[in-house]
Amino acid sequence: MFAAIAGLLFAGCFFFLMLVVLGVLSKAYEQYQERYIVKSMNDLSDMFLFIDPRQMLVLNIASMLLLGVGSYLLINPLVAIGATVFGFFLPMMMVKHYRKRRIKKFNAQLVDALQAMANAFKAGLTFQQSIEQVSKDSYPPLQQEFGLFVKEAKLGVPLEEALNNMARRVGSDDLDLVATATNISRQLGGNMAEMYETLSTTIRERFRLEGKIDALTAQGKLQGWVVAAMPLVLGVVLNYMRPDLMQPMLDHIFGYILVAAIMVMEILGILIIRRITNIDI
C or N terminus of the chain, fewer CB within 10 Å? Predict the structure, then answer.
């Protein structure tokens, strides 16, 4: 009788525990959808890449399983845990990387576009006409953004609002500067051609300084990656030459702790070196 009551109590506790766990997992999944999937979808839509949210979720799960199971079968369970966590964030990291590349390409195109708009103003074209002409003669991503700006203006959206929408959508500091200067110049009056020539020269000079800084800090960045890769390379070489010495470390909990400490220190070293060599203009 006592055993039956204890079994019922245990079953009831387990049932309520599972309800709590399911509730926590449900809340975590909702936050995951709001913070990561929705943000990634907004970033992709801003880049004119329209993907279904379910496809993004499937990509996330596939990345986790592929890296986790592959690392478990090829290396060991400790690496599999780290690979699974990395696979969870990999799609979002890819979206951020693609967005940074797109902004960099847009900024490079913006310099020539500003000079072309200055020439269009000298030829007597209006602001909307000059942007439309530049969008026809350019390539993506600038063609996409300027083309959408022209469509919004034709649908009745005020030019200042359409320009601010484009600046927010692209996420470029240079375009924010252009949008602010354009709105102020349109409200207060001024020589638009001269203003765009000045902006084009300023942005081009900043690109030159950034290129010079990248060239001066390239050696430090390379040294950081070489130093960070040395323990991993040495570990692989020693495991190939003397597996009898390396295997006990990989079969014991203290070996896992040592590897985890090495990984943490390697990551901290890479972050510190990148912080030192990352000079923002």
Answer: N
